[in-house]
Amino acid sequence: MRRLRGGAVTAAVVMVAVAGCKAEHGKGASGPEQTGGGGAALTAAESLPVKGRAPKTGYSRARFGTAWADTDSNSCDTRDDILKRDLKAVKVTGGTCKVTYGLLEPDPYSGKDITYRRGRSQVDIDHVVALSDAWQKGAKYWAPSKRIALANDPLNLLAVDASTNRGKGDGDTATWIPPNQAYRCTYVAAQVAVKKKYGLWVTAAEKTAMKKVLATCPDQKLPTGGNPTKAPERFRAR
Predict the structure, then answer these.
(1) Full-model pTM
(2) Contacts of 120 (CB under 8 A, 6+ apart)
(3) Whose C-alpha in 63, 86, 133, 179 is 20 to 30 A from the C-alpha of 112?
(4) What order do you get walking across the sheet with 99-104 strand by strand?
(5) pLDDT in tens, 67-110
(6) In whole angstroms, what separates CA 36 from the centre of its chain?
(7) For residue 29, is it left (φ>0), alpha (ψ between -120 and 50) or beta?
């Protein structure tokens, strides 16, 4: 996704988000468990450290290990784990973990209903905090095991409409929010949860955007759980 520039553009994104959260927040598809007390997400957003975005130099997907590694050792890859969590009416290949069919009702990003069929790219598993965004906000300096953990943590993963997700790119809250107004507060809370769990920083514009969205839904809960922040030693990343 091409980054948006200028305070006026960022402000416009935030104002649309605010309107959406005021209208209806907290509804959408399944995903990470929403726990924590009232105001937890806003309080957490306020605590995130602020720094400038570091250069993207050195980033590649390989820095976060092999895609969809089975870091929880349940003999299923991470992608299929998330499909089974977020889809309804799931069907799998006999004797395997491979999801062949399911219903995303609704897709959290667009609000529309989508039928998933394996081999057709209508459903993506999105990294709520994009890996390249994480790289520029602290992950560049991590041990490989922590980067692998982030890339496969269910707390940071969500089944979504593929076409809508491609529009997100590596955007943060200051540059992209879901078109589905009903999911915006939940989405921002998830980004806050992941950044807090892994010790990532945010830019000043990003923190402002997060707080403006969450101020409209002060009882928004903070997602918790997921995997440990260090992957098992058998997994390697460059």
Answers:
(1) 0.85
(2) none
(3) 133
(4) 88-92, 99-104, 114-117
(5) 999 999 999 999 999 999 999 999 999 888 999 999 999 999 99
(6) 18
(7) beta
